[in-house]
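Intended use. Records like the one below are meant for learning the mapping from a protein sequence to its folded structure. Do not use them to infer anything beyond what is encoded.
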Amino acid sequence: MASDTDDLAFDVFSRQCPSRSTLEHATGRWGSLTLGALHEESLRFNELRRRVDGVSEKMLSQTLHALERDGLVLREAQPVNPPRVDYELTPLGREVAGRLLGLIHLVEGRMDDVLAARTRYDAARGGR
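Structure written out for the chain above:
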């Protein structure tokens, strides 16, 4: 009996599949937060860095390059002085970000359960 994944052109579970790196870029800590922040509006680099609290300049730059290469983020340089660069989601990036935001909102909404589970876990293991 064939499974649904047998018909897919790409298989994220295969280590050689290019979809795996795109999934990692989109769902890694900085990628998901960057996509979530850009879902609200287009932002300049420093605005985005302030919105994604804790990300270093280098890490944000690497994240944006990876997301741009994957077709999720559009980098638009404005021909003005001083230079201005805006980042926004592509239609594909908007779709991915929308799904990530669903997960983000679920996690935020269930944090009481998560914190209670952590407390139980730590108590059962001697207060780690």
